[in-house]
Amino acid sequence: MSFDDVDSIVRTALQAMRQGRIGFSLQQVNCVNEHHEVFYSECLARLEKLDGTVITAGEFLPALEASGHAPELDRHILNLAFEWLSNSASVPLGCNVSSLNFSSRERRAMLFDQLHRNRSLAPQLVLEVTESAPVIQQFGVAEFIQDIRNLGYRVAIDDFGTGYSSPETIFSMAVDIIKIDAFFAQLSRRCEADRLLHHMVGLASCVAPTIVVEGIETYEQLTLARAAGATHVQGYLLSEPTLCPVFRGLAHPAALGSTTARGLGVPCFTKLSA
Predict the structure, then answer these.
(1) Which DSSP helix (H) or strand (E) runs through 44?
(2) CB of 99 within 8 A of CB of 129?
(3) Distances in whole angstroms, Cα of residue 104 to Cα of each of 70, 109, 110, 134, 170
């Protein structure tokens, strides 16, 4: 995706949201021992350009983060997730929530209001907190996350072990799930991966009952995750998401394609690779 500057990426993404051209694909989080058991499916943002080209969040999310617009994408995907869950009996979903949502009282209020309005669906949604900035350690954030959990949502710390995620972060709040960054499963030397992953899972287990190792692409990595004590895994080995979005909202029926039940307009779960 070629843009002259960050501003043009942001303009393109914001316009795509308004026009219903940003949706999501799904990637499963699977039980480490019983691979067919799906814990939930993470919503991965996809943007369809005006020429029909589809691009992943990795190509436009960094610009939204840098410009402070990531919370707008989060709220957009959350709205789609609530719409999907309201019309589908599929497995629970997971949505990324940038820590920028916690950076001010106004942003926290906007997120909480959205979650409160849809609290009937809370048991079916996992909020994956991504730390793009160290704001999660600010005063009042731990209490805010607990308020979200009190609504019935499960909260995960995403990409633990990299960026701003730290032991100080996870020990400062109550969460339900820790997702360990793919870096620790994908180290080139097995001895290092084995040792580091074991320590990371052990540390995370002191905080949350559910530990997900991300980036599982080989059976060797799956074996390492199981040996380290992880409860769940996520990665291309067990679930490869589609590039095109499987859902962009019922207001845009052309985007649903085969994910819509015939004649009903109801989104159905698209089975991914397992």
Answers:
(1) strand 38-48
(2) yes
(3) 14, 9, 10, 13, 20
What is the model's pLDDT at position 170? 78
In whole angstroms, what is the distance from residue 191 CA to residue 38 CA?
29
Quick one: DSSP state of residue 271?
Answer: P
Q: What is the dihedral of CA 121, 96, 83, 48, to 10 degrees?
A: -170
Fold of 28-41+69-242: TIM Barrel (3.20.20)
CA distance 4 to 2: 7
| CB within 8 Å of 240: residues ≥ 6 apart | 27, 272, 273
Look at the pTM and tell me if it is higher than 0.85: yes
Say how far apart CA 94 and CA 144 lie, in whole Å: 19
| pLDDT digit string, tens, across residues 80-135 | 999 999 998 678 999 999 999 998 899 999 999 999 999 999 999 999 998 766 65
The answer to whether 69 and 10 have CB atoms below 8 angstroms apart is yes
Q: Domain-by-domain residue ranges, the chain?
A: 28-41+69-242
* Burial (CB count within 10 angstroms: exposed 0-12, middle 13-18, buried 19+), residue 33: exposed
Total length of the chain = 274
The residues facing 43 across adjacent strands are 26
How many C-beta atoms lie closer than 10 Å to residue 90's C-beta? 17
Q: For 129-179, what is each residue's pLDDT tens digit? A: 987 666 566 668 889 999 999 999 999 999 988 866 667 777 888 999 999
